[in-house]
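Deliverable D5.2: sample structural annotation.
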Amino acid sequence: MKIMKEWKGEKPDPDEKSLKAEFETETKALERFADTEDAHSRRKQANIEPLIKASGLSMEDIDRKVNQAKSDSKASLQKDEPQLLKPLFDIEARHAQDQALAKRVSEQLSEKGNPYWNGYIWSPSYAWRWISWNGEAEEIPTVSFNTSNRRFDPRAQAWGEGWWDGDFSLIHGYLAFRFSPPSWGHLHVYVSPWLHGYYHLYSNDEWWNSEYARAELDTWVDLYQNFRRHRQYLRRLTIGGSELHPTRYGRIDRGYSHSYYENVGQSDTVTIRVGVRLYCYARANGSHSILNFQSGAANYVYVPRIYWYLHR
């Protein structure tokens, strides 16, 4: 099993060393999971071969079924994807109204007499990603950034191969926001990322194979001031199974929220990162897992602002 890695960004991260160590730890955990799944699938294949022979099926028959399962898997995506590319409502109008209301609130907060420090960060300072994948070129996760529009568009997908080969695709993408606290104190951060995209999984396990598909989606926030603070993950989507009847798909057009709390010092720059984690896993021909926030103009992750509140 070969894991390929890529580490890119628009500007240097203030704590690149610790992020690389975290990336290595996460990838090793996924490698162990994939190895365990592969070993289980091999055992299942060995145990099922006598039954295949007893049923009168030949290995050539099974190979034809395996290839047909792969064709069915791809056909299901081609059929469903057109209706998944566009949201059911006008998301741009909703975002414009949300931004206008937030700016109106920020003007009220800046009035004299407010006993605490607070404010909005409207634009990200930089963007970054760290990714890993195992498998064919079509499974490589990708992400691009548009910091001026406060957006990035990640995609991850995995396709199973053969009787039992399991492949995964993992990606983190985030925007980083920076400011200097006017005082030491307790910093409360509130952020509401919007996710626009879709998921599509296919797995139609039969008695003679090991099809399985899984997708996980998290949003997260962390903070850096002189060293990396804790990261807050919130699971937004988990779908997995060997029998998905045989397709599971849908759009994700939702606004989420994080409330993050940390102590900070005065003047030293604070970096707040807001990101998503996409994980896809698929095993055996006829299974695939896709998380797509990239295809089409209406699919992206949007982080419009960060509200911060500082008190002693």
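Annotation notes: Residues 1-10 have pLDDT under 50 and may be disordered. The first helix runs from residue 16 to 54.
The annotation will be released with the project's public dataset once the embargo ends.
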